[in-house]
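Ticket #4471: structure output looks truncated?

Reporter: J.K.
Steps to reproduce: submitted the chain below (82 residues) through the standard prediction queue, then opened the result file.
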Amino acid sequence: MWTAENRPRYNRDTLRYPSDLTDEEWAHVAPLIPPGKRGGGKRRVNLRQVVNGVMYILSTGCQWRYLPKDLPPKSTALLQIS
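Returned output as attached by the reporter:
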């Protein structure tokens, strides 16, 4: 409910993009991401940024090729969610 006490919780002005996850939201999402496969190489990508990229696509409706350059490349984001 939009009350004076509750409104600051939903303020997204301090985020890079309004679709980026807050620390509180990331705390809910991070445990759902499976660990890397055994015997494989170490992950070299920040999974929070990958999720932010997916959230950007979902919230804006833009095409994958128009993903901003400061987010992971579309090939990385697509591989991580498939």
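Triage note (M.O.): checked the attachment and the full token line is present. The radius of gyration is 15 Å.
Status: closed, working as intended.
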